[in-house]
Specification:
alpha+beta; four-stranded antiparallel sheet
Length: 88
């Protein structure tokens, strides 16, 4: 019995880290229940929603990838506009 293996060059794994940052927003009241639900459904389940900002602990290969994906998620929610990003 033989077992097939994929060539080593075919397996690509990227290390990921958890990145902590905050995205400042304007527009809709983020603390309204419908906004909390909309942000969760948009992919922000790894975030803490505050008045005027969404604080993330997002897993990604780089900080830039983490921030870009979070902005993309937030911007799918009608009435919310990204104003800026803070990283500590």
């Amino acid at each position: 019995m033989s077992t097939a293996r994929a060539p080593e060059h075919a397996v690509v794994e990227r290390a990921t880290s958890v990145h902590h940052f905050e995205i400042e927003t304007e527009g809709a009241d983020l603390l309204a229940w419908e906004m909390i639900d909309a942000l969760y459904e948009a992919g922000c389940s790894d975030a803490t929603i505050r008045h005027g900002s969404v604080e993330f602990d997002r897993e990604a290969a780089t900080l830039v990838e983490a921030v870009e994906s979070a902005i993309k998620d937030i911007e799918t929610v009608p009435g919310v506009t990204v104003k800026g990003v803070r990283h500590r």
